[in-house]
Specification:
heterodimer; A: alpha/beta; Elongation Factor Tu (Ef-tu), domain 3; Rossmann fold; Ubiquitin-like (UB roll); 3 domains; 7-stranded antiparallel sheet; 19 strands; B: Rossmann fold; 2 domains; 5 helices
Chain lengths: ~325, ~200
């Protein structure tokens, strides 16, 4: 098989090869390269950004790759339908059909498995299970010990719970909220061999709870890993002046600064589009209101400094923002 | 001759107590004991009660800090005759230690480097180990030619203890080996050397 990528290309045209309804609100999509050949190599924990044309708008959402790292004939993602968000997941669920073409970015891994670790605790909440599926597969292939703790809302919500249980048996622990089952986190944190790494993906509250409990149990920061992609929050429209490009764009109510800038033909660098990676960090020249930092990348002092903004998820409260772009 | 600004040159940020640790595992050599005293003396009493201190007087041989360390009333204090025996004991503890154990290392650079090697070999992240350099600036050197180690080097260049080549002591550091690199200084004209200076007293 030959590589289908031109060198330097970051966007890969793909065809939707399969769509499977996994649970009430989750669908799995299989993307094959339009040009044939194989997809680029990735490692467990990686994500791609899927680009979609929704009406006149171009939406780009990050999704974790969940397939086996040894199967490069296609990428697989699972998408939770969130009706009250900005439409990417609803579009994938309701409008995308087998045979349609989309574009995915080359994979980026902000949540890699620490290869020197001795043991791995994977904790997932809801759709946060997707990177863990790739991790469990990779760790199994590497013969590294792991356990997977997966919490979800109710019996209908546990996407892949049965498959994982069947494949990994006692390594998989399931917790169903509606049955009042909770991850026994404190006990879990207390009894792990030195060199254990913990990975958590899920809702923000759960991630904070797990990380905070880990720190309080004396786990070093270096052994606690999390990933969460934020959808850009909505807000009042405002205008953005791109000082170097000499352009002015309007950021709509349900649009991110990055999306508005892209629509004007300027292409700032980005990787995750979810406030996690830091790639789209942009210098603020001036702002007539206050910056609303929604990312979890900037350090508190950088936020307060009002000189930097992550344009993928952050906004301003005000009417005019001037950026060094 | 010493090229500065080499990024691999380790930085020791000092012993800072992790208040959340279930257990403190402290490897300490010579004057490093003073860093442990500075960390634990002002700390709440339960800090020492959770501490295992592995101590060898090595570098500070004329002064023995064992008595001062004992006055901290640590959970466990193990005086050991040499760095090598301490490293073996450290390995023993790390084999069975649980998450929640925080590792601290204090002493000369050569000691920190070797204890860190043991930690790294036990899947501990480099950045999670808290270190403080106390005592002599003497360096542990690896000869890049014969790969032999020469300990306690205080001079700007030194003959390799193994192959005898005259080695320039560099800032270039190997975390894996726990040693600075020594490179032949007189390859062009053997024996033609600048005067050696004591720069790591």
């Amino acid at each position: 098989m030959s590589m289908n990528l031109m060198s330097g290309s970051t966007e890969i045209p793909v065809r939707v090869a399969d769509i499977v309804q996994v649970s009430e609100r989750v669908k799995r999509f299989r993307f094959e390269p339009v040009a044939g050949g194989s997809m680029p190599v990735f490692s467990a924990g990686a994500h791609v950004v899927v680009s979609m044309n929704i009406g006149s708008r171009r939406a780009r959402n990050p999704y974790s790759l969940m397939g086996s790292v040894t199967d490069l004939s296609a990428y697989e993602i699972s998408v939770l339908k969130t009706v009250d968000s900005r439409g990417g997941s609803v579009f994938l669920h309701d409008s995308v059909k087998i045979g349609d073409q989309l574009t995915v970015s080359t994979p980026v891994n902000l949540f890699p498995v620490e290869q020197r670790g001795r043991k791995f605790i994977l904790i997932a909440g809801g759709i946060g299970i997707t990177p863990m599926i790739a991790m469990a597969e990779q760790l199994t292939a590497q013969k590294l010990p792991f356990e997977l703790h997966y919490a979800y809302r109710n019996d209908q919500a546990g996407a892949y719970a049965d498959t994982l249980k069947a494949r990994y048996g006692h390594l998989v622990h399931l917790y169903i909220d509606s049955r009042d089952e909770r991850i026994p986190l404190d006990a879990l944190l207390k009894n792990q061999p030195l060199g254990t790494h913990l990975y958590v993906c899920g809702p923000g509250g759960m991630i904070n709870w797990v990380l905070e409990s880990g720190r309080k149990a004396g786990w070093p920061e270096e052994n606690l890993h999390s990933e969460r992609f934020l959808a850009p929050p909505s807000g009042k429209p405002f205008s953005v002046v791109l000082e170097r490009s000499k352009k002015t764009v309007t950021v709509g109510e349900h649009e991110s600064i990055l999306e508005a800038i892209e629509a004007s033909g300027v292409e700032p660098p980005y990787l995750c589009r979810g406030g996690a990676c830091g790639q789209c960090l942009t210098c603020v020249v001036s702002c007539d209101g206050t910056l609303e930092h929604n990312d979890h990348y900037l350090a508190p002092e950088e936020r307060d400094g009002n000189q930097k903004i992550m344009i993928c998820v952050s906004r301003i409260k005000g009417s005019n923002l001037v950026l060094d772009l | 001759m010493l090229v500065s600004g080499i990024k691999s040159r380790p930085v020791y940020t000092g012993l800072i107590l992790d208040p959340h640790a279930e257990h403190h595992l402290i490897a300490v050599e010579g004057e490093g004991a003073l860093a442990v005293l500075d960390m634990l003396s002002p700390a709440p009493r339960d800090a020492a009660e959770k501490a295992t201190i592995l101590y060898t007087k090595a570098g500070s041989a004329p002064v023995d800090h064992e008595g001062a360390l004992a006055k901290l009333h640590p959970y466990r204090l193990q005086p050991l005759p040499t760095i090598q025996t301490l490293l073996i004991r450290l390995q023993g503890f790390l084999t069975t230690a649980k998450m929640g154990t925080r590792i601290y290392i204090a002493g000369t650079e050569g000691f920190i480097g070797q204890a860190m090697q043991v930690a790294l070999n036990n899947a501990i992240d480099f950045h999670s180990v808290r270190t403080e350099h106390r005592g002599s600036l003497a360096r542990r050197i690896q000869c890049v030619h014969c790969k032999g180690f020469t300990e306690n080097v205080t001079m700007s260049h030194v003959p390799c203890a193994h192959c005898g080549l005259n080695l320039l002591v560099r800032d270039h550091y190997s975390r894996r080996l726990g040693a600075f690199q020594g490179v032949c200084i007189d390859a062009e004209v053997p024996g033609e050397l600048p005067p050696a200076e004591e720069i790591f007293p």
